[in-house]
UniProtKB/TrEMBL annotation:
GO terms for biological process: phospholipid biosynthetic process. Belongs to the diacylglycerol/lipid kinase family. It comes from the Bacteria. The keyword Transmembrane does not apply. PROSITE patterns: DAGK (PS50146). Gene3D superfamilies: 2.60.200.40, Probable inorganic polyphosphate/atp-NAD kinase, domain 1 (3.40.50.10330). Residues 1-30 are annotated as: Disordered. Residues 39-169 form the DAGKc domain. GO terms for molecular function: ATP binding; kinase activity. This is Diacylglycerol kinase family enzyme. Keywords: ATP-binding, Kinase, Lipid biosynthesis, Lipid metabolism, Nucleotide-binding, Phospholipid biosynthesis, Phospholipid metabolism, Transferase. The keyword Lipid metabolism applies. Its cofactor is Mg(2+). It comes from Naumannella halotolerans.
Length: 364
């Protein structure tokens, strides 16, 4: 992410950077009406990553929706190199924003969601970056900025689950973070750390093919001890473990077919292929059975569980809490961003922990 740029304050917008300015923003939401009474003016906030958005285009779209809705001037908060949006989201809430728009990649969305955790202020998603994972899983539009902005001002709110993780480093230090889509170790995290950022900007998620080929050659397994909910702890040797709040990845890949963003449950998948045949089984399961057969099932309203057989190289489980201890430090990723190496972690779900703005009448 780019270094923090100079802040600009223009008509109809404000870039708030300090607690004092945030307090001023709260004061500005109150106006004296013709009847002499004080009236609260609704305001939005935009947390944006300057490297992911065309700011002039975004400001024009927000200004139009803001005027149409009769709201006050929007608060503009730019992410920083050392903070992808957590502090900015908290600042938006403190400033009295009634909705916060996240404009950036998946990392920005994750950080803003973490900053707004339990605030009761809805998060609105604007298409940006290459993934847009949460927006894809909510089946929100990815092609029309104006429509997404309009939803932020006119849509309705939906409670989503929020994934939380406490990571333990080799030096004993711990770090807590949120995720909205999934957390992963193994091949998944290796892809994130090995993928060329410039190539990703040019070709999007196709850039992972190069690093995937490199990772598959290694075939290294991760030895761990896991515990799901109150079950007995067990030793595992896997290639990859993913813990998801959502099921779909870019390219319409349905990795976790039973995952739902509001069911209060986390879905866990482990990949443990034995050679090339194991990977073929996994690819068939994910690309064919999970996607095509599930669409047929939902279309005809009948069960195809018999057609979706178990794959030895792949395992599915569900839990509200997941504890993992590793034999050796391993890289971990949250919503596509690498978070360094860990020797263990605990994951849990906070049902309804995130309020999200969706189109009115949305059935998703």
């Amino acid at each position: 992410m780019a270094d923090m740029a100079d802040r600009d304050v223009s008509a109809g917008t404000r870039t708030s950077t300090t607690e004092e300015e945030a307090a001023d923003a709260v004061a500005e939401t109150t106006r004296e009406g013709a009847d002499g009474d004080l009236h609260t003016e609704r305001r939005a906030a935009v947390v944006f990553n300057p490297t992911k958005v065309e700011l002039d285009v975004l400001k024009a779209a927000v200004a139009s929706a803001e005027t149409a809705a009769g709201w006050g001037p929007t608060i503009w908060l730019e992410t920083a190199e050392d903070d992808p949006g957590i502090a900015m989201a908290k600042e938006a809430v403190e400033a009295g924003a009634v909705v916060a728009l996240a404009a950036g990649g998946d990392g920005t969305v994750r950080a803003v969601a973490e900053g707004m955790r339990g605030s009761g202020v809805p998060l609105a998603l604007l298409p940006a970056g290459t993934g847009n994972l949460l927006a894809r899983n909510l089946e929100l539009t990815l092609d029309h900025l104006e429509e997404s902005v309009s939803t932020a001002f006119t849509g309705e709110d939906r409670e989503l689950d929020l994934g939380m993780i406490r990571m333990r480093r080799a030096d004993g230090q711990t770090e807590e973070a949120a995720f909205v889509v999934m957390a992963g170790i193994g091949l998944d995290a290796q892809l994130m750390s090995n993928t060329d950022d410039e190539l990703k900007k040019k070709v999007g998620w196709l850039a992972y093919a190069q690093s995937m080929a490199s990772a598959l050659k290694g075939g290294r397994r991760i030895h761990m001890r896991t515990r799901l909910d109150e079950q007995k702890a067990r030793n595992r040797s896997v290639h990859t473990m993913l813990i998801g709040n959502c099921g779909s990845l870019p390219g319409n890949i349905l990795l976790l077919p039973d995952a739902a963003v509001d069911d209060g449950i986390l879905d866990v998948v482990t990949l443990r292929p034995e050679g090339p045949l194991g990977w073929i089984q996994i690819f068939w399961k994910v690309l064919v059975e999970n996607a095509i057969l599930r669409r047929i099932e939902s279309g005809v309203g009948t069960s195809l569980e018999g057609a979706r057989g178990k794959v030895r190289a792949m395992g599915y489980q569900r839990a509200r809490k997941v504890g993992v201890r590793l034999d050796e430090p391993e890289p971990i990723e949250l919503d596509g961003d690498e978070f360094g190496e860990v020797v263990g972690f605990d994951v849990w779900v906070e049902p309804g922990g995130l309020l999200t703005r969706v189109p009115t009448g949305s059935s998703v």
